[in-house]
Design brief:
The protein has 177 residues and is mainly beta. It has two helices and eleven strands, in the order ααβββββββββββ.
Length: 177
């Protein structure tokens, strides 16, 4: 349902039940308090006179895991992963403690999106660490990503240039718009 233009009150004119319901009751049902279902959510305009509730999501994987693959992959514990309902954009924030098991080799943490949107993990959207052997660095990144409206699954993925990449305290936060 969308908000409709309210009737103009005229002195000594009465409203029918149908007019009252369409002009007052139904419009009150289109307000944020009437649509709110989740604490911590917020509302965005999805079209003229139409709002939708958006629910930010977060996920952390605390265990340190590694990969030796040079193409993007999931680690033994997939993720972090969140599923959100978004409109045209989502603010994606992700990071981890990254360190290489091989001096001078870069390691990458990116994200992929599936569902309404299809985006592969890429180096262009990655956190990249080229550091000395076994010296963890906490890194993070924020991107405003274009999305297709609907249910979207965002999953962090990983790769290395060579050697072993280690990833600990992996986190992902998504604010859908």
């Amino acid at each position: 349902m969308a908000y409709t233009t309210a009737l103009t009150a005229v002195a000594n004119a009465s409203l029918t039940a149908a007019q009252w319901n369409a002009s007052v009751r139904d419009n009150l049902a289109e307000t944020a308090p009437a649509k709110a279902t989740t604490a911590g959510s917020f509302f965005v305009a999805t079209a003229a006179n139409t709002i939708a509730e958006r629910i930010p999501k977060a996920h952390t994987v605390g265990t340190t895991q590694n990969t030796t693959l040079t193409s993007y992959t999931n680690l033994a514990t997939v993720g972090p992963t969140v599923t959100v309902t978004s409109g045209a954009n989502a603010l994606i924030m992700w990071g981890a403690q990254l360190y290489s098991g091989t001096t001078g080799q870069s390691i990458y943490m990116s994200y992929a999106i599936s569902g309404a949107t299809s985006v592969a993990a890429t180096d262009a959207s990655a956190v990249v660490s080229t550091n000395t052997l076994n010296y963890p660095i906490q890194m993070s990144r924020v991107v405003l990503q274009s999305t297709t409206a609907g249910s979207n699954v965002i999953t962090c993925q990983y790769r290395v240039d060579g050697g072993t990449g280690n990833y600990g305290q992996r986190n992902l936060n998504v604010v859908p718009f």
